[in-house]
Amino acid sequence: xxxxxxxxxxxxxxxxxxxxxxxxxxxxxxxxxxxxxxxxxxxxxxxxxxxxxxxxxxxxxxxxxxxxxxxxxxxxxxxxxxxxxxxxxxxxxxxxxxxxxxxxxxxxxxxxxxxxxxxxxxxxxxxxxxxxxxxxxxxxxxxxxxxxxxxxxxxxxxxxxxxxxxxxxxxxxxxxxxxxxxxxxxxxxxxxxxxxxxxxxxxxxxxxxxxxxxxxxx
Length: 218
Hints:
The chain has helices at 2-11, 14-36, 41-45, 49-53, 59-62, 70-88, 93-114, 126-140, 155-174, 176-217, and strands at residues 144-147, 151-154. It has 218 residues and is mostly helical. It has one domain (2-191): Rhomboid-like (Rhomboid-like fold, Up-down Bundle). It has a two-stranded antiparallel ribbon with strand order 1-2. α7 (93-114) packs across α8 and α8 (126-140) packs antiparallel against α9. The radius of gyration is 20 Å and the shape is globular. 29% of the residues are buried.
């Protein structure tokens, strides 16, 4: 068992390891506080429009550290290991963690705008995982992948199907606002990557332009 655990940790990328460890730690602390009746971490970190607009802006991101339950924790943990590992191998640890914050904040902004007066809190890393799913499509969307059910398809098509199913589930279980909040994580992540791509392209173009000028001057 120890060997399996060591191999599992060694296979994780640094950023995924940090974020997964943080999610586990916060969940354990939250459960301990509830069981011991000592404190309620959900009351401090969960996101609601009224709390945010009263100045508690940290909730815009910290809600994603609190799972909705054990199944929510397990499913988001698996998604983090699979999707996060793929993305971080293209990025640095800092870029990966920043992207996760952007995705979480995107859904959080949608929450406080659409449900500004609602006391119902938002918790769970699902919007952040939705952002990771969109990030995978942004980086590898044109690559082909073989799935037993769908056969050979592109990554983007697979992601669109998964996103549509997830949003429909949210629509029928939580309503339109819940579906939009979920989509906010992916939308924020996509917009961030698009802006970063445009910025990198503009810098590359400037460097090429300067090199051409230097050659002409020589």
